[in-house]
Amino acid sequence: xxxxxxxxxxxxxxxxxxxxxxxxxxxxxxxxxxxxxxxxxxxxxxxxxxxxxxxxxxxxxxxxxxxxxxxxxxxxxxxxxxxxxxxxxxxxxxxxxxxxxxxxxxxxxxxxxxxxxxxxxxxxxxxxxxxxxxxxxxxxxxxxxxxxxxxxxxxxxxxxxxxxxxxxxxxxxxxxxx
Length: 178
Prior knowledge:
With 178 residues, the chain is α+β, with helices and mostly antiparallel strands. The chain has four helices and six strands. It has a six-stranded mixed beta sheet. α2 (55-72) packs antiparallel against α3. The longest helix has 49 residues, at 2-50. It is globular.
């Protein structure tokens, strides 16, 4: 009887061990991921408050937050990074002007999606709470569910700092030369 009892205990212990291993790998991963994200945000906040940055560094960070928000469909981030008066004038002029409300509607409705994007050739001028950035913006964008296509545009962005955060007040696009 003690042999059966020992085998039963070993089987139960093995079973519990296997279940614990399966359970912990599923449960620990999100915790690790979220703590890594929290740590990255904390490190970023420390770097922002402890090390002085240049205007160009600040605007580059804001431009990257903008492109990631637009490409990833993050309307929460876009709501924070775009000023209430935000307008974007496309390459066809006033007829292609997009307001903040229209942009949010297109993004949240899935009418505008991008699978990749980048910022290059950035130059920044300004001082105090206003900056103007000239840059080249590339993205592979899908509009209205159509297949993504690459687009490169020259952009002039006007940024304003409010409550310690840079917000995009205006974007003007010009077609990039091939």
